């Protein structure tokens, strides 16, 4: 199945590109590389890319800007590479749209494992159910199979991980999920995230689907317990 996936690896160090390409191609993936942000965006706009490995420190266009531009219209999985190991930098990466991250220097074998896991979560583990869920007379519309979310008829772009969390919540309406349970159900027990990561995902989702993210109608906080989805009036399309 691996040869069905095309991976874009973006880094300004040729030796990193060569090693990562060699390992990923050995696993059967098709790999395209770029050494600057401008080239990465050009490739992404021309090719069907299933996952991006993206360095932050890039010439011409920064990794943060590349991620933000892609996230404006796509939920393609993104693994971010960063030389900064502190928690705030990782949270910033997630805030701008990364689904996972690795700190340099990193193990290429670990990167391959994370690539496989993220592809599996993104393209294999979708929940079988009705095609489209509609809430509040069309205010919010979620197409599970196509991974498309619309707010008042306009498409909003969620990252793969944000979509996974939203799906878990809205397919279990009124059920309260702790941060730990959300991580387990959405990403598996081996996911290495932390509480603040889940809070960041929830904050991002609210900003995209709520009329007022400071007074959320759909995803509400149950203090001391976690989060739940309030469906209000809803309908289902097959």
UniProtKB/TrEMBL annotation:
It holds the Pfam family Response_reg. May play the central regulatory role in sporulation. It may be an element of the effector pathway responsible for the activation of sporulation genes in response to nutritional stress. Spo0A may act in concert with spo0H (a sigma factor) to control the expression of some genes that are critical to the sporulation process. Keywords: DNA-binding, Phosphoprotein, Transcription, Transcription regulation. SUPFAM superfamilies: C-terminal effector domain of the bipartite response regulators (SSF46894), CheY-like (SSF52172). GO terms for molecular function: DNA binding. Residues 130-231 form the OmpR/PhoB-type domain. This is Stage 0 sporulation protein A homolog. InterPro entries: CheY-like_superfamily, OmpR/PhoB-type_DNA-bd, Sig_transdc_resp-reg_C-effctor, Sig_transdc_resp-reg_receiver, WalR-like, WH-like_DNA-bd_sf. The modification 4-aspartylphosphate is found at residue 55. It comes from Clostridium gelidum. SMART domains: REC (SM00448), Trans_reg_C (SM00862). Residues 6-119 form the Response regulatory domain. It comes from the Bacteria. Residues 130-231 bind DNA.
């Amino acid at each position: 199945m691996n040869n069905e996936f095309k991976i874009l690896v973006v880094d300004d160090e040729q030796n990193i590109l060569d090693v990562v390409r060699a390992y990923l191609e050995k696993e059967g993936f098709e790999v395209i590389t770029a050494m600057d942000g401008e080239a990465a965006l050009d490739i992404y706009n021309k090719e069907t890319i299933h996952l991006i490995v993206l360095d932050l420190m890039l010439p011409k266009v920064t990794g943060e800007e590349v991620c933000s531009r892609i996230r404006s219209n796509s939920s393609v999985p993104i693994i971010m590479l960063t030389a900064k190991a502190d928690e705030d930098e990782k949270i910033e990466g997630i805030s701008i749209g990364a689904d996972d991250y690795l700190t340099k220097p990193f193990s290429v074998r670990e990167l391959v494992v994370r690539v496989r896991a993220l592809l599996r979560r993104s393209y294999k583990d979708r929940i079988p159910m009705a095609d489209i869920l509609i809430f509040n007379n069309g205010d919010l519309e979620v197409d599970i199979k196509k991974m498309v979310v619309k707010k008042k008829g306009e498409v909003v772009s969620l990252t793969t991980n944000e979509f996974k969390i939203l799906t878990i919540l809205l397919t279990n309406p009124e059920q309260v999920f702790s941060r730990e349970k959300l991580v387990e159900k959405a990403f598996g027990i081996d996911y290495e995230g932390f509480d603040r990561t889940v809070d960041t995902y929830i904050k991002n989702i609210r900003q995209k689907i709520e009329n007022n993210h400071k007074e959320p109608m759909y995803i509400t906080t149950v203090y001391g317990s976690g989060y739940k989805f309030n469906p209000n009036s809803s309908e289902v399309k097959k």
